Amino acid sequence: MRIWSIHPKYLDTKGLVALWRETLLAKHVLEGKTKGYRNHPQLDRFKQTEKPVDRINQYLATIYNEALTRNYNFAREKIDWNFEPSTMYVTTGQIKYETEHLLNKLKTRDENKFNMLSKLKKIDQHPIFKIVKGGIEKWEIV
Q: Domains in the chain: how many in total?
């Protein structure tokens, strides 16, 4: 499971669809609707918030909006749009790590996205996150 800290606009088609599906699974975990993946490290940062289900719905909303810009047909009704917006934090080291991880994936999957991303000097984070200084997050499996 990979719930990216970087903005979903950088993902190729395969990556965006996978993010949507994996985040929906994460939502089910946080809602107590599944027994699998309950202790997955990627969920720790959501579990540590005051309202984990609101945060995952807020996170999903950005993925959904990115899908709309690409004319993809993601199911809007899978998101509870009554979430209360909030901010989470991610470290500079995590953003750097994820950017390198994505570049490695794009190198073989999508040359255009790879070229675009590799030329950028600054990578935007998913809008739910505010960037703070630090290394790779403790929950990340390196």
A: 1
